[in-house]
User: Which sequence fits this backbone?
């Protein structure tokens, strides 16, 4: 017995040392995948954390608040969620992969282990006081018990999903049970998969192995067993003084992880899938209860440029990555000009989307593009487009044909015989094109503007009556034609005004705009003269 104890102690000491040496030869040639490693900690840290799978970068706390007994943790990479439990608070929480948007997913549950089926269910095991294994829909509804033993003669400890083979594994560590069970995903067809085992955590390798940890005297170890012929498990880690807890598998990159949170160990280990070669401390000073692995989401695509076509009815958006087929219009996109987005299509160059607009962008208009988050636009590798606003869109609509106003004898040649009406004529404009004609007085302030449309021959004409515009300033006036895209012409004249098609200057003489006071004086004199005439006529008639 003494010799066995010595051998056991020696073995517990040598296995990690051998693994560390093997790491130098195995891991040095192996590239790490782009994964996140999530883990929950109980005393003394009481939190849920994440780190990149290089064990050195990306460390962050997902939740460090009020987790008195952080236990299970699981990830749903397909929908971007992390689930974790606090048995003291009797809750399962859910956050985004970076810890944002924390919500209480379930209350009054005492989950010591959580597993996610990518097809839509969340599973969890409970110890005191419920002693069961349950399943719930991703929306938190449909809570169903799939394993329960009446009385207190059970102690469910952990649960794991083998989605590849449609199986569910869970353990019951009660002394009279101590079994890992396997069942269908709905809980039916339950059978004893591996008796005589008090498993704290279970992980499934789709290639054919089941891993589990034990922390019940005399077994303080991590083991592996063949899924199809369990037989006798292979011990891959034995703790000299600790209590192995979390187990996780990164099948894509060929690693398995296990934790020993005992204060004398407080380490997450990593090894090759055989559990022995390449074994090394992955993260020290860590009290991990549970471990979960999530492929880091691919980087989001970004918009590198956007431009209209020459007719202004399409905006082509260029992305930094090859894009997946877009969702239905408007797919979260809004354009500041040209009306609503009526269609969104993947361009033949798959780094581009073509957005069809309800109406066309006009020449010279400022155009911007915005996108609302959560609309489902993704790159082909699954990167999700994030919200943005005010992205500049290059306006490629060419300037319309620029007409010109007649400009002969600019002094008064535009007036009628009384010099009170300005007649404007132009030619060479785009046919049947709406536009604005604006008049600016001698101080370059707008007097009025008219909406009009060029003729089929590109001619344009308008007229301005000066009579009664007593606030206008005489002298050097201007008339300008603007695109109809301008809601209203500028209040002050400029030779380079936005959306201006053409302009011309002319002179308004002082007598073209009768002074308001002079007009009143003439009216008063006329009235007085009339009254005098009637008075004298009446007097003569009376004398006669």
Assistant:
């Amino acid at each position: 017995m003494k010799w066995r104890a010595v051998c056991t102690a020696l073995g517990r000491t040598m296995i990690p040392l051998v693994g560390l040496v093997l790491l130098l030869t195995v891991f040095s040639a192996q590239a790490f995948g782009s994964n996140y490693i999530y883990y929950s900690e109980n005393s003394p840290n009481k939190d849920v954390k994440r780190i990149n799978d290089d064990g050195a970068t990306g460390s962050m706390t997902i939740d460090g608040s009020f987790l008195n007994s952080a236990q299970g943790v699981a990830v749903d990479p397909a929908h971007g969620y992390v689930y974790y439990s606090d048995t003291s608070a009797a809750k399962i929480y859910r956050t985004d992969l970076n810890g944002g948007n924390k919500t209480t997913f379930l209350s009054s549950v005492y989950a010591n282990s959580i597993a996610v089926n990518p097809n839509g269910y969340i599973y969890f095991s409970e110890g005191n006081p419920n002693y069961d294994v349950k399943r719930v829909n991703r929306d938190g509804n449909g809570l169903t018990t799939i394993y329960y033993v009446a009385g207190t003669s059970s102690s469910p400890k952990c649960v794991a999903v083998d989605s590849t083979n449609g199986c569910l594994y869970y353990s019951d560590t009660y002394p009279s049970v101590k079994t890992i069970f396997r069942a269908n995903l709905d809980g039916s067809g339950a059978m004893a998969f591996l008796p005589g085992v008090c498993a704290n955590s279970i992980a499934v390798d789709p290639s054919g192995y089941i891993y589990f940890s034990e922390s019940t005297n005399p077994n303080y170890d991590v083991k592996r067993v063949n899924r199809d012929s369990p037989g006798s498990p292979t011990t891959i880690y034995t703790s000299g003084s600790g209590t192995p807890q979390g187990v996780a598998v990164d099948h894509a990159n060929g690693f398995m992880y296990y934790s020993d949170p005992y204060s004398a160990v407080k380490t997450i280990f990593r090894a090759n899938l055989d559990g022995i070669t390449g074994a090394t401390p992955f993260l020290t000073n860590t009290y991990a209860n549970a471990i979960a692995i999530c492929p880091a989401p691919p980087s989001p695509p970004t918009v590198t440029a956007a431009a209209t076509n020459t007719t202004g009815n399409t905006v082509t958006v260029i992305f930094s990555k090859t894009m997946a087929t877009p969702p239905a219009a408007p797919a979260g996109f809004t354009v500041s000009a040209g009306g609503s987005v009526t269609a969104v299509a993947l361009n033949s160059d798959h780094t581009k989307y073509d957005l069809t607009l309800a109406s066309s962008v006009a020449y010279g208009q400022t155009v911007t593009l915005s996108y609302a988050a959560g609309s489902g636009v993704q790159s082909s590798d699954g990167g999700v487009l994030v919200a943005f606003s005010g992205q500049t869109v290059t306006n490629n609509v060419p300037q319309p044909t620029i007409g010109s106003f007649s400009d002969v004898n600019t002094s008064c040649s535009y007036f009628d015989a009384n010099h009170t009406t300005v007649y404007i004529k132009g030619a060479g404009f785009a046919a049947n094109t709406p536009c604005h004609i604006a008049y600016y007085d001698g101080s370059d302030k707008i007097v009025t503007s008219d909406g009009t449309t060029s003729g089929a021959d590109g001619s344009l004409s308008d007229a301005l009556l000066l009579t009664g515009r007593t606030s206008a300033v005489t002298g050097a006036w201007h008339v300008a034609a603007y695109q109809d895209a301008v809601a209203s012409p500028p209040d002050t004249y400029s030779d380079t005004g936005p959306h201006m098609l053409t302009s011309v200057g002319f002179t308004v003489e002082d007598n073209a705009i009768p002074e308001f006071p002079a007009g009143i004086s003439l009216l008063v004199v006329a009235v007085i003269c009339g009254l005098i005439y009637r008075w004298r006529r009446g007097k003569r008639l009376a004398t006669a």
